[in-house]
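Following up on my earlier message about adenosine-5'-diphosphate. Here are the inputs again, as you asked, copied directly from the submission form:
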Amino acid sequence: MNKNRYIFISKSPGDTVALGSRIASQFRPNDVVALYGDLAAGKTTFTQGVCTRLHADQPATSPTFTLINEYSGDLPIFHFDCYRIKHPDEIIMLGFDEYLEKDGVVLIEWPENIAAHIPEDCLELHLSYVDDHTREIVIRSPRELEL
Ligand SMILES: Nc1ncnc2c1ncn2[C@@H]1O[C@H](COP(=O)(O)OP(=O)(O)O)[C@@H](O)[C@H]1O
Ligand SMILES: [Mg+2]
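Thanks, got it. Here's what our run produced:
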């Protein structure tokens, strides 16, 4: 599908948090955000900005050991980390498809591990390390975004 493409250069963790906050202000119920990028690329940092903007009941933490963190806020936030998934069926067993229809926002770290289950019209972020403080973030969005 044809998506709008943006490039954002983040110069600090705070920049990445601020980006998450600005994008979160444009979310609609049932939006899905696929966060691509290596360890320490800033996927969880971005999610922290989302959680703050949506007045989540807790700050975002890495769900690496739990697979999913759920926060309530202006919209419910479902934060998946698929790093440890060996087979995509594992996430389906946890009811992944139902989370796509709960009128919340679904954020997914390591979406490549469940590639077949990522909706085509998701918002994609591709985060990459440039140097200690800098990340390049390529955004592909099905809608126009204000950054
Ligand atoms: N511009 C930046 N944006 C985001 N994180 C950054 C940036 N510069 C340095 N960092 C550091 O990189 C790490 C990112 O961690 P995290 O968000 O947990 O990554 P991931 O979830 O992708 O593994 C943090 O230690 C953060 O302080
Ligand atoms: Mg993470």
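One observation from looking it over: The chain has four helices and seven strands. Hope that helps, and feel free to reply on this thread.
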